[in-house]
Amino acid sequence: MTSEKNKRMHVHNGKTTHHSDKQHETVKVDGRLIRLSENEKYLKNTNIKAFLDMIAWAEGGDYDLKYGGVKGKKNDKWRITDYSTHPGPGSDKKTTAAGRYQINKMNWQENGVKRMGLTDFSPHTQDLIAIEGLRQGKIIDAIISGDMPTSIKGASTTWNALAQGHGLPNRVAGQPYKNTRI
Predict the structure, then answer these.
(1) Which of 4, 25, 40, 59 is catalytic?
(2) Diameter of the chain by CA atoms?
(3) This prediction's pTM
(4) Is residue 41 assigned to a domain?
């Protein structure tokens, strides 16, 4: 897989003409499909998968939990039962954080629907949206190479349940967080 920082792909509408043609042909490329395909490849990387597990551990979520749900409680009323869309507000009736990575509705719409063309909130979709968050935080290469101090510090700007590094607090005073040993 090509590293994120070394890969330069420009996606746009353009014109192409075979050398024997006199007419231009417009070619439309759906950038969402390219982004989705790239994120699918990242999902196969063992370091990425392990890092996603760490985020889920810190956030305390599971694929089927809305904010405020109790992990392990089978009949929790805040369990997600319909993955056809983002579930909306959780037990506090305000925050929309949900799923394994506590993805809010705005993040789902921006990074899932608009950026990758995703149409549901399934476990696989949640993984892809989390990877998109890692890419936006510009820490994919650090994760792949095993640079955990850089990776965790970068991820802590998106996932408040992560400390900024070993022995450091998270970036949101008063919010519970997990300290990692790196």
Answers:
(1) 59
(2) 67
(3) 0.80
(4) yes
